[in-house]
Ger(X)C family spore germination protein
Amino acid sequence: MLLGINDTGFGTVVILGLSLCVNGLFNKYYFVYVCHYIFIIWSLFRNKKIQMGNDNLLCFKWLDTIKRKWVFVCICIITFSLLTGCWDRIEIEDRGTILGLSIDPIGGEAPAGITGPYAKSDSTGYRLTAQIAIPGRIPLGPIGSSGGGATQRPVWVVSTTGKTIDDAMNKMQQQLADKIFLGQLRVITVNQKIARSVGLKDTQDFFRRNAEIRRLCWLLISDGNADEAMEAAPKLERVPTLYLVSTMEHAVELGKMPNVFLGNYWSALSAKGMDPVLPLIKVIGSARDQIETEGVAVFRGEKMVGMLDAIETGIFLEIRNMHKSGYGVALPIPGDPKHSVIFKALNRKTDIRCKFVNGHPSFNAYTVVPSKIEEKTGTKSLDKREVIDQIANEASETLTNGQMKLIRKLQGLHADPFGFGEIVRGQEPRYWKNKMKNSHDKWDDQFSKTPFQSHVKVFIQRSGMSAK
């Protein structure tokens, strides 16, 4: 069947086709898209009739000429009103961009609040220390490149106090000429004393309500004064906050730290069968210019109840089925206890199985760990398969004992950072509703006495570049 179009319709099709081609090539420009829209409206008003063969399939009855002109003018006015630009923009030089923020207890001094006498929280007050970016000094290339600001510090550290977090932020605003902007906040560091004493409920509420805060911001716990992390000047990065962000990202990539952002913390906090964990850091060195990852802080609800060191963090990630392995484990060489061999997992896979015995849950963890030999001391050769198998069996037993020891430690803290409660809630909703009463505290108490068995199997697949 042939498609016949009259002269007016042919012109309409040509205009529509050209506008569609232009929009397809340059649709990233909003103005071109608007022109395309106007062309379509104008073309439709010009169209009288479209015929197919000898039969009129579609016929439009349009408004008279005057009405069409007024409609077209109105459409243009409404459309071009959308092209007013960024009328509410704020230039970057006019923003007080905070990159990092630390929160410490106020100590014995009185907080310098500004929001009135009724500002109160569970803590007597907070000391906020902020790293504020100085426009023009943030390095965009290698250190040492030409530029007058290469030797100047790219951030300004400002400190203030307040009765609440918002009270302290308002007080900090009085010290700045530009409006505080939290859209580029990358790190929030909280003193361990606050996390252990009053918890993070009042501390993190301000950030949870603020629309500028990114959910990918790191929330860290500091072993010591948190403001030291803001004052630190590491040698590898001119911006301390960016160095701290890189440290955490690389620790995650190497399998030494869980990938826990601010949004992950809030998600775990909202879960009824899981407790959150947060990375634990410490500023070290005689010049206080080095930042070390110590492990993770374990929470029960919003209060810190314990911590896991580096090795325990690795076992925690193992049970959580996080495949990357960050740390090696040393074992005595079979037949030569004065020397050792260090093996490291290439990958890990853990399967958690839940079953009910006498109406109560119990768990079994089955872990498979392919690994490699990283180092050997002494002169005993490892070229025999029997020796490799003995090392693998010893490693399996060591990791099994490590998992059981970690589970008992967390059961003693009445904290379930693994999410076993979420497994129970998903598999047996009736048990969760009738026995646990949808209560987080009830599950933490039940977890402390829930049976758990670990089954680890290590396979040594590589011995490195040396066969012996």
